[in-house]
Design goal:
alpha+beta; Jelly Rolls; 2 domains; 7-stranded antiparallel sheet; 4-stranded antiparallel sheet; 16 strands; globular; iron; dioxygenase; repeat; EC 1.14.11.7; Oxoglu/Fe-dep_dioxygenase_dom
């Protein structure tokens, strides 16, 4: 049966969670591995100067892992480990031709199940960018906020993404494996064994080169301008203000911090201090989640912490 090898769920990720995931990508997204894309691996969030922005990714991973395990893991009669997870934005002109996920390269052969969560709506937020299987009754999947599509990663599910014509197509991509040696959780917990040490999340921000586009522009600076702000460096800090020079000026610790501040103002209509109450609450939630994750040996967000919104 076709339902055995692929499955579509609607409404599994809430509107608020999708909004938070888009916000995380807008804050930290960097140059993608494909032309005209931006990408953000979970690891890069954890090493950033705002590791608590990983909270909505951890929650979404948990939800999707449950769906995949219940449908595909039971079929295979084995446990499926998350092998890779990350956010991606497909920009106008981006596309990918017919392929299947487990056999593009030798280093991908361990992938057993693929899953994609759509974080915004085709037609409203972007045009083009349909997901299509090569054969079967379920051939086309229209991206819709909160929708999840999952499928076996082998040649039974050859697929493509049609060219994005306009807008920004946001997704959360995950791959699953039955090989514990490729368990993403174990690798991240080994890399970051404890908060507050040199190997803790947030200790090693990614280099600026990772934010350079093919044209040499800094993605963060382009976003700041598009939001209607300008920023200039002053010593070790950055000054952010509206492009027209009117209104408040905010002193920020980095270019990334400047972008996050600009996004918060535009998304939430607030210039709340990044070091204020919301920030401290999120930091505490991240610390508690990480401590529990280390105890359990897998990444985990307690339900009462998952309720915290970024915006």
């Amino acid at each position: 049966m076709e339902e055995d090898k692929r499955r579509v769920w609607d409404g599994e990720l809430s509107r608020d969670l999708c909004r938070d995931l888009r916000f995380v990508h807008d804050c930290l997204g960097m140059r993608g591995y494909r032309a005209r894309t931006e990408a953000l691996h979970l690891n890069h969030v954890l090493v950033s100067e705002r590791p608590h922005l990983a909270l909505p990714i951890l929650k979404a991973r948990e939800i999707i892992s449950g769906l995949v395990q219940d449908h595909f893991g039971l079929q295979l009669n084995r446990y499926l480990y998350l092998e890779w997870s990350g956010l991606m934005v497909w920009l106008p002109g981006s596309e990918i031709g017919w392929h299947y996920d487990s056999n593009n390269e030798d280093y991908l052969k361990q992938r057993v199940v693929s899953a994609v969560a759509y974080l915004n709506d085709q037609g409203r937020d972007f045009t083009g960018g349909s997901f299509e299987f090569e054969e079967g009754e379920t051939r086309g999947v229209s991206p819709r906020e909160g929708r999840v599509v999952a499928y076996f990663s082998n040649e039974s599910n050859i697929h493509r993404v049609r060219r994005v014509e306009s807008g920004r197509r946001y997704t959360l991509s995950l791959w699953f494996t039955d090989q514990p040696a490729h368990d993403e959780d174990a690798k991240l917990l080994k890399q970051f064994p404890k908060l507050g040490t040199g190997s803790s999340p947030g200790a090693h921000p990614v280099p600026d080169e990772m934010y350079r586009t093919e044209a040499g522009n800094d993605i963060r600076m382009d976003k700041i301008r598009a939001l209607g702000f300008r920023v200039q460096q002053e010593g070790a800090t950055h000054l952010l203000q509206a492009s027209n020079g009117q209104g408040s000026t905010w002193r920020c610790e980095s270019l990334t911090h400047s972008l996050i501040r600009a996004l918060r103002i535009r998304e939430g209509g607030s210039d709340e201090d990044e070091g204020g109450g919301r920030e401290k609450t999120l930091q505490s939630a991240m610390e508690e989640s990480w401590e529990r994750s280390v105890e359990l040996g897998q990444l985990y967000v307690p339900d009462h912490l998952a309720e915290h919104r970024l915006l």
